Structures are given as C-alpha cells and as structure tokens.
Amino acid sequence: MHQLFRLVLGQKDLSKAGDLFSLDDAEIEDSLTEALEQIKVISSSLSSSSEEQ
C-alpha cells in the first residue's frame, strides 16, 4: 500500500489526507484494493462502536 494510504488509513493521520490528491493515478492504482479493504474495516468498526452507545 502507498505510504500516504498507510499514514491516513493505518495511523489515522488525517493531516496527510489532502496529500493523496497530489499523487498521480499510477502511484496509487496498485494500492486501491488494499486501501478499500482498510476503509471497510475502519467503517465497520466505527458503525459497531456507535451501535454500542
């Protein structure tokens, strides 16, 4: 996965999220599948934690 995806998704460093838009498509294409899986994990954990409240 591209380093910026790791920072934004893995470490939840949202200060770097805008930097993703500066990358060329070719730089992130190979990371998209893994990034989407990480987003699914994050969103499912957020929805289950909000259901517990």
From TrEMBL:
GO terms for molecular function: phosphatidylinositol-5-phosphate binding. GO terms for cellular component: endomembrane system; plasma membrane. InterPro entries: Melted-like (IPR039888). The keyword Amino-acid biosynthesis does not apply. Keywords: Membrane. One of its GO terms (biological process) is regulation of signal transduction. Its main location: membrane. The keyword Plastid does not apply. Coiled coil: none annotated. It is found in: Endomembrane system. It is a peripheral membrane protein. It comes from the Eukaryota. PANTHER family: VENTRICULAR ZONE-EXPRESSED PH DOMAIN-CONTAINING PROTEIN HOMOLOG 1, VEPH-A/MELTED. This is Ventricular zone-expressed PH domain-containing protein homolog 1. It comes from Mus spicilegus (Mound-building mouse).
